[in-house]
Design goal:
396 residues; 11 helices
Length: 396
């Protein structure tokens, strides 16, 4: 199922940009306003000119998100010029905001370089203007610089952490989508194998029975009628199996099939399969050796489909009068399945399609750590040998 993502509302980027612009205006006004009381404390005259100097110093902050480094340089230059005129006209909050922006939006080395330049400018100004008690102001102002730098670095680290979390979430989401796609592909392959097994087997049986009915219709109409009833019964079983498979698909998609489905084939239904093959004219025997453990449903279905596929191939290629045998041998830690026939099927080609024929057999058996060997037998006929691993994890 594809993942559901929350999409931003229309106009969201524009609203966000407008919010940032308003925030920058407020920060700029606040940086200038916080420096105004120092004008009265320092008795700066004329105050109108001093207020204009503060406004010019703080104005570049409007573009601090776009050009952090040039804005810092402009604010620092304006503050130095204001300090040369009157130390009380220096806009300290604007300097701290510019340094904070550098630390939050630029690489760490750039922010540290700007902090060092600002600190040198402060110490130089204090040595020139503050007299013998300059170090009191130096401690306070250095602390403010460190606080602005530290806050900016924290915001940058937090932003990087959140970006990493976002990237990780997107990566996990992509991995989940890929896993879902792989699972869907595996499910399609499984359904293709099931459909091949159902359709190929039942159609082969029906074709063989129909040919027998045609052959018997002239000499034994009663026998022909009986055979055609077997054709109808086989067709009904094919429809029931197909409905069962499609019903599972509807159930997985959240729909109620509204009908009773037959259970998945297992080893208990091998007798029914053998009888069905016999009715199609293939003399078949079933032999089970050893004590059968309680196998999981998936393994039982695998063995059932293996036997079904092998007998279907014998019906197709074994020729008239062929005989087949099915042997299940439960050994310690292993289940061996032998399907032999004495027909003329030595030249029957193995299917190379994905999910069908011998390829489908091998895919099923390998899922349980086993292997399949198929080939001609002497003096004639065909043999299929499969081995499946049995252990504690293979019991239900």
């Amino acid at each position: 199922m594809p993942s559901m993502r929350m999409l931003p509302a229309a106009g969201y980027p524009a609203n966000r940009a407008a919010g940032r612009w308003v925030s920058d205006v407020l920060v700029t006004v606040a940086a200038g306003a916080l420096a105004v009381p120092a004008l009265f404390y320092g008795s700066v005259h004329p105050r109108g000119v001093a207020v204009l100097v503060l406004a010019v110093t703080a104005a570049p902050l409007l573009a601090r998100r776009i050009w952090p480094l040039p804005v810092f340089g402009c604010v620092l230059a304006a503050a130095i010029g204001a300090g040369l005129w009157n130390a009380s006209a220096i806009d300290g909050p604007a300097l701290l905001v510019a340094l904070y922006t550098m630390a939050a939006m630029r690489p760490r080395r750039d922010a540290l370089a700007c902090a060092v330049v600002l600190e040198l400018a402060i110490l130089t100004g204090l040595l020139v203007l503050a007299g013998s008690r300059w170090w009191y102001d130096a401690i306070f102002l250095s602390g403010m610089v460190a606080a602005a730098l530290g806050l900016g670095l924290y915001i940058a680290a937090r932003r990087a952490y959140l970006a990493e979390l976002h990237d990780r979430a997107e990566r996990l989401e992509r991995e989940r989508d890929q896993q879902a796609a792989l699972a869907a592909a595996a499910e399609r392959a499984r359904i293709a194998r099931e459909m091949h097994d159902i359709v190929a087997h039942h159609l082969t049986v029906m074709t063989t029975l129909a040919e027998a009915a045609v052959a018997a219709s002239a000499t034994s109409p009663e026998r022909a009628t009986e055979v055609m009833r077997s054709v109808a019964a086989t067709g009904r079983r094919a429809l029931a199996d197909t409905r069962r498979l499609l019903g599972v698909l509807r159930q997985r998609s959240g729909q109620d099939p509204g009908e009773t489905r037959q259970p998945v084939p297992d080893l208990t239904q091998l007798d029914t399969l053998i009888e069905q093959v016999r009715s199609a004219g293939l003399d078949t025997t079933l032999e089970v050796r050893g004590q059968a453990p309680d196998l999981p449903a998936g393994m039982q279905l695998t063995v059932y489909r293996l036997v079904q596929e092998a007998l279907t191939n014998t019906l197709k290629h074994g020729g008239a009068g062929a005989r087949a045998s099915v042997r299940l041998h439960f050994l310690p830690g292993e289940l061996r399945v032998d399907i032999d026939d004495d027909g003329a099927g030595t030249t029957a080609p193995a299917s190379t399609g994905s999910g069908s024929g011998l390829v489908g057999m091998r895919e099923r058996i390998r899922a349980y750590g086993g292997d399949v060997q198929a080939g001609p037998r002497q003096p004639e006929g065909w043999t299929v040998v499969a081995r499946l691993q049995l252990d504690d994890g293979d019991t239900a």
